[in-house]
Hints:
With 356 residues, this protein is an alpha/beta fold. Helix content is 48%, strand content 18%. The protein folds into two domains: 5-168, Rossmann fold (3-Layer(aba) Sandwich), CATH 3.40.50.1970; 171-355, Dehydroquinate synthase-like - alpha domain (Dehydroquinate synthase-like, alpha domain). The protein has helices at residues 18-28, 40-45, 47-53, 74-86, 101-113, 127-133, 171-188, 190-196, 206-222, 237-250, 257-275, 280-293, 304-312, 341-355; strands at residues 5-7, 12-14, 33-39, 61-65, 93-99, 119-124, 138-143, 146-153, 158-160, 322-329, 332-339. The strands form three sheets. A seven-stranded mixed sheet has the order 1-2-9-6-5-3-4, sandwiched between helices. The longest helix is centred in the last third of the chain and has 19 residues, at 257-275. The model has no long low-confidence stretch (mean pLDDT 95). The site of nicotinamide-adenine-dinucleotide has 31 residues, from helix 2, helix 5, helix 6, strand 8 and helix 7.
Amino acid sequence: xxxxxxxxxxxxxxxxxxxxxxxxxxxxxxxxxxxxxxxxxxxxxxxxxxxxxxxxxxxxxxxxxxxxxxxxxxxxxxxxxxxxxxxxxxxxxxxxxxxxxxxxxxxxxxxxxxxxxxxxxxxxxxxxxxxxxxxxxxxxxxxxxxxxxxxxxxxxxxxxxxxxxxxxxxxxxxxxxxxxxxxxxxxxxxxxxxxxxxxxxxxxxxxxxxxxxxxxxxxxxxxxxxxxxxxxxxxxxxxxxxxxxxxxxxxxxxxxxxxxxxxxxxxxxxxxxxxxxxxxxxxxxxxxxxxxxxxxxxxxxxxxxxxxxxxxxxxxxxxxxxxxxxxxxxxxxxxxxxxxxxxxxxxxxxxxxxxx
Length: 356
Ligand code: NAD
């Protein structure tokens, strides 16, 4: 894949010479003020790189949040709104979100609601945010331990993906993003899955990132508001988000998003084998892929009730029924498969049985 950019719904995602492209983009716009949102880590590792490549961004107003999913909440969002107000941001201002998915999700939400919406661009700095969170126009924050429950559909003006930023990312974070790359292959492109399952997070290259974004973009441009097809992106996320929420609330060193989704994808592949047409061989292959790259997560039956309660808050449900996106083969996925609680628990038993 050699294209330098991919067109999405009203904006472009840029890949090569990206920071120069950002500079050119800023030159063509007449923003009254430019603000940059970072977290403490991207302030240290990414902001100097950005400001060196784009000198016009030196001296612009900076807003910094504490890093981590536990801070993707309304309190930090209020802090962002207050600082935007203090800095005198108006409807002609631009917010640059420089960070991982927490910054791009929360910054997108803050911008899309401030003064009924100001322009924002995404400069994702983790693998996860480059292949997934920054593309598709979903913004949001968590409430308690319910993930992404408050948010907007809001399109950025552009997304600038610079893989140089990944050099300072720690390996665990890189592996977390790798889960979504594998997911994109599983739900829509068997050939891509076969390629990336043989890699590891450190050997993912720019072409893989472009391909992964192209898969997501192809889905979100057909269904920007998640009426149908877009739900395939949620494969692994119904159970994965519940595990992530549980882990955030209870573990000293909680699972990262991709780690939780990897567990969710194993459980939901089991459901796909049980309720859909995914075959035994495909299930075994998926289990092998995830267990090779991701840590096991140990939990007992006593947390099933809490996990199910978290799943019931999921936005994909209809009334009391818990909705899933389930593979029907590697590379193809169905949406709106509703599964009863007993069968969901069976998939959790299956996972626990696997890891012993
Ligand atoms: P994150 O934003 O928490 O970043 C992970 C960690 O890496 C943080 O500590 C951060 O400070 C640090 N970091 C970021 N860039 C760095 C760099 N270049 N060098 C060194 N450290 C760096 O987490 P994430 O995995 O990027 O994103 C997860 C979030 O994305 C979740 O909240 C999830 O819900 C969201 N998400 C959203 C969508 C969507 O469509 N909007 C899709 C998938 C995930």
